[in-house]
Design goal:
Largest sheet: 8 strands, mixed
Strand content: 15-25%
CATH architecture of the largest domain: 3-Layer(aba) Sandwich
Distance between the termini: 27 Å
Helix content: 25-40%
Number of helices: 15
Structural class: alpha/beta
Number of strands: 16
Strand order of the largest sheet: 4-3-2-1-5-6-7-8
CATH topology of the largest domain: Rossmann fold
Shape: globular
Radius of gyration: 21 Å
Length: about 400
Amino acid sequence: MAKTIVIAGSLAQRPRQGGHTWVFLQYLLGFKRLGYNVLFLDWLAPEMCVDEAGQPCPFGASLNLRYFQNVMAQFGLEGAYSLDYNHGEAYVGLSRQDVLERTKQSAFLFNVMGFLEDEEILATAPHTVFLDIDPGFGQMWWALGLSDLFGGHDSFVTIGENIGTPECDVPTCGIDWITTPQPVVLDCWPVQPAAPNTHFTSVASWRGPFAPIVYDGHTYGLRVHEFRKFFQLPSRSKASFELALAIHAAEEKDIASLAENEWHLVDPLAVAGDPWSYRRYIQHSMAEFMVAKGLYVQTRSGWFSDRSICYLASGRPVVAQDTGLPDHYPTGEGLLTFSSLDEATDCIAKITHDYNRHARAARMLAEAFFDSDIVLTQLLKQLTAVTTPSV
């Protein structure tokens, strides 16, 4: 009988965020492709429940529940999930007893950012894996004594591929980190014909849920702090740029600067509010221009966006701010990296000058380095190696 892989993460808490949804789908569908049964665990508190207008509402009528169930059904994950409402008041999908039984028989439980805090379920799993998808934040919080996301786990995996090396300033917290790229299920992200528009695009949040961090005498910033360095790119490059940007209306000065510098903003809820529209938005783009969070850049963490990998898989070139990517992947065709405004301008020019070559190279990079079959097989080998006693 096929073993089970358990994934615990926060999907119901963040409805209408198509990109965030795909983070979990890549793992769930990727492990299914490898022949594993999968189980997705989520939880929701009453105060998180909202309606379409974002107003508080009962759980049964919530957008959270409708969105969650629709995603599970449309991607063939019926019978493979459990949503715990209000610490056991109700379970949607599998019962708690079913969850405990399946978890007990699992190969690994991947706890994304330590989201699952249910001690009984964690204790039932034969092997718990902390999966770090925001490298640097959890480690610095731990080092500063602000939060400990790592306790109660057996192994530790991060997408910050430079963590643990001399090049990276992210503290290891005494942990022997397993590093991995993020996976993309290529069948879900087929290569696309020529783009119907000529925009460089991206889907992003201006600030996100976390605050900047002061650590070891340095202030590590957010995407906003990096993006301001590149406001002049449209006028410098003469290319067209569009951002599906989550930015609060109170950011008046930055919104004005983006408009003055010819950045066209669209509502991410309108163009990327579910996994299908998110995929269409990427597929209909010419290429991606990606600015990273300041912490990823300043620490040289080796982080690479799951979103950028979807662009590559779709045959869309990516111009990415350098977080240490050339340490791991070939750059210059399909994936180009920059650190300064001049370098970004040059990268845009190269893409527009020989677009078809870069588009072909983008898909080749996805196939060679990010295919879920390859990435997840290698990750399981690494985890198995640390769980197998040496002779």
